[in-house]
Amino acid sequence: MIIANGTIETKIKTGGGIDPDTDYPIAPSVSWGNPIECQYRANKYSNKGKANGEAFTIASYEILIDEQPYNAEMLRLRDISGRILRHRSRAVTGSMSNPDFGLIWEQNR
Questions:
Q1: What angle do CA 20, 17, 77 make, to 5 degrees?
Q2: What is the distance between the alpha carbons of residues 73 and 11, in angstroms, rounded to a whole number?
Q3: How far is CA 51 from CA 45, 60, 85, 90, in A?
Q4: What whole-number distance in Å separates Cα of residue 28 and Cα of residue 75?
Q5: Cβ atoms 23, 4 nearer than 8 A
Q6: Which of 27, 30, 25 is closest to 13 using CA atoms?
Q7: Is the CB of residue 8 less than 8 Å from the CB of residue 77?
Q8: How confident is the model over 55-107, as pLDDT tens digits?
Q9: All residues at 6 or more sequence positions from 8 whose CB lies less than 8 Å from its CB, including other chains
Q10: pLDDT, position 72
Q11: Sorting pLDDT into bands at 50, 70 and 90, what band is 44?
């Protein structure tokens, strides 16, 4: 059991492929799945990143969810009030690893 302080949403791609008449690619449509309650905490959070004169935030999160089948390439993390976590004006998205025992999630922006 977790103490939820946020939610995650899975990025879902549907459609796409090649148009059989023109042989041009068809862009897939992208949407976000249903929110799943999670408990997250920042492992690392630093505003000291700098590249090409631009400052950016480095953040690493540990995200726990109740035991359930979960598989995704991308996810979106929201806080308990429903706001997407943001660093500078960019939305937080990341790739997950180890889906059976929680999510280790990193964002470099």
A1: 160
A2: 7
A3: 17, 18, 22, 16
A4: 17
A5: no
A6: 30
A7: yes
A8: 877 777 888 888 888 777 788 889 999 888 754 434 455 544 444 334 444 44
A9: 35, 36, 38, 63, 65, 75, 76, 77, 78, 103
A10: 79
A11: confident
* Two tokens, residue 35: 């929110």
pTM confidence score = 0.67
Token duo for residue 48 = 């000291």
For the record, the structure tokens of 44 come out as 């690392």
- Quote the CA–CA distance of 45 and 107 in Å, as a whole number: 10
Residue 8 class from Cβ within 10 Å (0-12 exposed, 13-18 middle, 19+ buried)? buried
Contact 1, 66 (CB under 8 A): yes
